[in-house]
Amino acid sequence: MEDPIDVSFYLGKQAAETIGNLDVPLSNGQIVSINLVEELPEDSNELISFLETENCPKKYWISVATAYAQSNKLNESLNVIKTAMGLSQFNNEDKLSFHSYLSWLYLKFVSSGINKGENLVNATEELNHVSSLDSSKGSVSVLLAKAVLYLYKDQIEPALDIFDRLLKIDNNNCFALLGKAQIILNKTKNYANALKLYQQVLILNPLMKPDPRIGIGLCFWFLKDEPMALSSWRRALELDPTNLKAKILLNLANFNINFNNSLGDKDFQLNYEKCLKKLADNYKENSNDAIILLTLASYYFSKEEYSLVEKICNKVIHSISGNSASTKLYNPSKVSRFQSNLLSQAAFWLGRVAFAKSDFMQSQKYFHEAIKLNENNLMAKLGLGQSQINRGSTEEATITYESILKTNPKCLEVNYSLGVLYSNHKSKRKQEQGISMLERYLRLAKNMGGQPSNKNEDDGSEIMNQEPVALNAFLILSKLHESKDMNQSLTYLNKAIESRKQINQDAPLEIYNNIGVFNFIKHNYEAASNIFQTASEKLKTCNDFKNENGDVLMDLRDDLNVTISFNLARSKELSNESESIEIYESLLKDCPNYFSAKLRLLFLDCVSTNKSTKEEIKQEVENLLDLNASDLEIRSFYGWFVKTFGKKVGMKPDADTNHQKDTLVEYDSHDCYALLSLANIYCIMARDIKGSSQDEKKKKYYIRAVELFTKVLSVDPHNVYGAQGLAIVYIENKESNKGLDILRKIRDSLNDISVYLNLGHVLLDLKQYSKAIENYEIALMRFANNDSKILSFLGRAWLSRGLTEKNLSYLNNALSYSEKALQNATGAKSSLRFNMAYIQFQIAEFISKLPVEQRLIDDIKKGIDNLNTAIETLNSLSSDDEKHPPYPKSELKARANLGTNTLLNRLNACLDETVESVTKSEIRLKEAKELREQETAQLLQEQEERIAKERRIEEEMAKERAKLQEQAQQWAEEARMNVIVDEDDDKLFNKESNMEEKKKRSKKSSTKGTKGKKKGKKRNVVSDSEDDAPSPSEDESEPENDSKRKGEEDDNEEDEIKTSKKRKISKLSKETIEDSDDELDDDLFNEEGDEPTGNDDELPNEDAVEEGQKENNEELPNESVEDEAQNEESQTEAQNENQSQDEQ
C-alpha cells in the first residue's frame, strides 16, 4: 500500500522540514534559528525581549505573532503585536501593517467564540484606523479583512462585492475565491458552483489555509456524494493533523453512517463508542466549539441527563450572543447566519428538555425561538407541533403541521402527525384527509429506503435503510375504514402484522383479536376461529406485559385470555358446538361472574342443545337479572327470551313490552335493544289492526315506532336494525320509494344479509322482479349458501315474474328454487311442500291457457307429471298424519280435487290437441317441402338450358369473328401493296415532268433575262408543290397556275404560299374521303354479319395509323414552301442546285 501524500509532496522534503523554523539575524552577524512549532515558549515575553533587543524588522514580529495564533494562543499573539506597535523603531507604514494584522487577529478571536461582540468592535476599529491612515484605496489584506468582517455581521452583499473586486484585480486570489465560494455555499445553496471555486483554489494552492478541502467535502456532502466528502476531509486531516474542522466533520459523518447503516445492535454500539471517543478528543482540543458542544448535548439528552444538556446549551448561547437562555435569543443584528443556526440548535435542545419534563409551555417557547433563529429548523417545527398537541391546542398544531407540509411535503413525521390529527376530527371530510395523509405516509416510508452504496452490489443496504412504519398508522387506518369498508380495514390490520414481522417482532395480540372479530362479522367463521386460536397460542408463549415506563401489567394477560377465549368459543358455535360449550364452561370456572359466557350457554340451551327445560332456563335468567338488574346485556337476553318463549312458560302477553319499558325508564333510556324491541312491538300492533275504522290508532302506532327507530339512530348512527325498521315503516305505509332509498344507503354502508333481503322484498312489491332476484341471489351467495328461506324467496320472485311476463321458463326457475328450498330445509317442511305444489299448479294452469301453436308436447307432459305430484302433495298435507298443515285441510283437499277433476283433464285435452296440431303441421310442412323441392328442380333445369343456349351462341359468334378478322387482314395487305405501286408510278411521272420543265426553262431563259428568272423560280415552286398531288387533278392545276403567273408576276411571296397551302388541303381532304369510303365498306360488311366485335374494331385503327404517317410525310413539302417564301435568295440558290442535281 502506498504511503499517504504529505506536505513534502508539494514543497519538497527539505522545505517541509524547515517550514516551522524562523532564522533571525543578530547584530554580530550570526543567525539564530527558532522552531516556532516545537520550541515556541509559553510566555511570549521571552521572544518579545529577544526581538526588541536585536531590533528585528517587522516581518519577524509578525512571524512570531502568527506562530502563537496558529497554536491557538491568541492572547500571546496579541501581546506580541501590541508590543511591536509601541516601539519607536517602526515607522507609520510598519504600524499600519500591525494595525491590519490586529484586525485579523480580532477576527480570529471571533471565529474561536471568544467575546465575539467585543472583538467584532475591535476589528472594526482597527480596520477603520487603517483606512484613515492609508491614502490608497486599501491593500488586499485590508479589503479581505473587511469582507470577512461583513461575513461575521451577516452582510453578504458588501462582502461579495469586495471579493468580486479583488478577483477582477487578480482572478487567482485564493482568499477571494474562498470567500466567494463560502457565500455561494451558505446563501445560494448552489453547491456545484461552490465546488468549482473550491477546486480552483486547491489547484492554485494545494497548501492553502484554511484548507479548501473542507469546503469541497461540504459541497460533495450536500450533493449526496458522501464517499467523496469523506475522502476530502480525510485528505485535509492527512496534510494537517491539527485541523479541528476536518476532525469534527469526519466525526459527524461517522455518527450519521452509524445511525443509518448499522448492521445490528453490536455493530452500532461498537461504532457509537468510537465516535464518542473522537468527540471527547475534539472537546479536549477546543472546549468552546459550538458544534462539539451541541453534539455532546444530543448525547447527554439520550442519557436523560437533562441538567447537563441545559448547561451545555447555555454555554453555547452565552459564547455566541453573550446572553443567557432566559432572555430572548433572537437578535439578528448581532449574530451571523451561521451563529444564528447554532443558537437555533441550542434552543431546540432546550425545548426538548422542557418537553421531556412535560413543561409544554416552556418547550413551545424554546421551539418558537429556534424557528425564529432558523426558519429551516424542521425539528424545531415538529417539536412545536407536538408541544401544541400536548397542551390541547390541536387546531394550532394542525396549522403548524400544514405549514410544514408546504415546504416539506415528503417529511414522514408531518404526514403521520397530520393524519392522526385529521382522524380525530368529527368531520367526515377531515377524516378522509386523515386517510389520505396516512396512506401517503405509508408510501413515503416504503420508498424512503436509501440506495445501496454501490449499485453493482446487492448487499441489502436498500432494505436496511428503509424507514420503519409506525404501527399506530395501520391501526388508525383500520379504524377509519371500519364503518365503510370492512375489507380494507381488515387489510390494514394484516399489514400491521406484516410490518412487525419485517423487523423480527410480533404484533400485539389485540390486533389478532380485531382481525378475528372482523372475519366473524363477515361470516368467515373458520378464518375467525383460526385467528383466535393463533392469538390464544401466542398468549401462552408471551413474556410479561409492560407499559411504556417498564412496569409489569399483571392483569393484562388474564384479561386478554378471557376475551380471546370467549371470541374463540363464539366463532366455533356453528362449526363445533361442543367445543364451544367446553370453552364457555372453562371460562365460567375461571371467572364465575363472566355473564357473557353464561348467557351464550343459556342461548345455546334454548335453540339447540335443549339440556334444560324452558322453565329452568327462565329461572336462571331471572336469577342473573336479580343479581345484575342494571346489566343491559342480561336485560336484553331476558327480553329476547320473553318474546320467544314467553307463551310456552306461561308469561303474560305484555311481559316483553313491560320489561322493555322498565329498562328504558328505570335503567337506560338509550338502550338500543330495548328501543328496537318496543319499536317492533308497535309495528306489530299497527300491522294487526284491520279495518278502516281504526286508521287513526294504526297511524299512531306507526308514528310511535318511527320515533323509537329515529332515537336508535340518534344513539347509534350505524345501527342497521333501526334504519331498516324505519324503512319498513315507510314501506308499509305505501311510501316504498322512501324506504327503498334508506335500504340502498344501508347497503352502501353495511354489508349485511338483512339489507339485501329487505331490498329484495321491497323491489318485489314494486314489481321490479329482476332487481329483487339480484338482491336475493347476492344474499344467498355472500352470506347463506343454500339457505332454504332465501331459496323460497327466490322461488316466489321467479313465480311472480313468470306470471307477470307470461314466461314458462321463469315458472320452471321458480319450481327449481322451491325444490332446492325443500331439500335444504331442516325443520318443518309442510309450508315448503305446499309452495312447491302451488307452483306446480300454476305451471299446469299456465300451460293450459297457452295458444295451441305455443305449446310443446314435452312441456305438457312434464306439467302433467308435476300436477300429479302436486295433487299427491296436497292430499298428503290434508291427511290426518299432518299435524301442522299450512292451510285448513279442507281447502287443501278441495284444491287437490280441483286438480284431479278439472285441471288434469284440461291438460290431457291440451296434450291431444297439441299432438293433433303438431301432426297437421308436420303434414303441411312435408307438402310444402316437396313443392319447394319441385320448384327448385324446375328452376335448375331452366337455368341449365339457358346456359347451354348462350354457350352455342357464343361459339357461333366466335367463328364469325375469326372469319372477319381473317378477311380484314387480307384487305389490309392488299391496301399496303396498292400504296407501294402508286408511289412507284408517282416517282416515274415526276421524273418525266421535271425533264419537260427543264427543257421549257432553257428555251425561255435565253429571251426573258432577269424577269424570266424570277418567273422560272415561281414555276419551280409550283412544280415542287405539285409533285405529291394525285394524278386526276394534275392536268387541271397546271394551266391554272400558268395563267396566275402571267397575271400576277409582281405579287408577293405570301400569295405563292397560300396557293400551295390550298393545293395541300385539297389533297388531304381527298385522302380523307377515300379512307372514309374504306371504313364505309367495312361497316357495310359488318352489317351483313351478326355484330361487330372488339377485334373487328382494331383493323380501321391500324389503317388510320398508316394514313397518319402518310399525312406527316406529305406536310414536309409545305414546310419547305413556307421557308422558300420567307427567303427569296436562298430559294433561288436551292433551285439552281436542284437543277444541277437533276441534270447529273
What does it look like?
By secondary structure, the chain is an all-alpha fold. Among the domains are: 508-545 and 552-591, no CATH class; 800-945, no CATH class; 1061-1086 and 1099-1144, no CATH class. Helices cover 76% and strands 1% of the residues. It has a two-stranded antiparallel ribbon. A hairpin with a 5-residue loop joins β1 (21-25) and β2. The longest helix is centred in the last third of the chain and has 137 residues, at 889-1025. It is flat, with a radius of gyration of 61 Å. Mean pLDDT is 80; it is low at 1-18, 450-464 and 1006-1144. Residues 918-974 form a coiled coil.
Number of helices: 49
Annotation, overall tally of beta strands:
2
- Strand fraction: under 5%
Helix content: over 70%
**End-to-end distance:** 117 Å
Major β-sheet annotation: 2 strands, antiparallel
Global structural class: mainly alpha
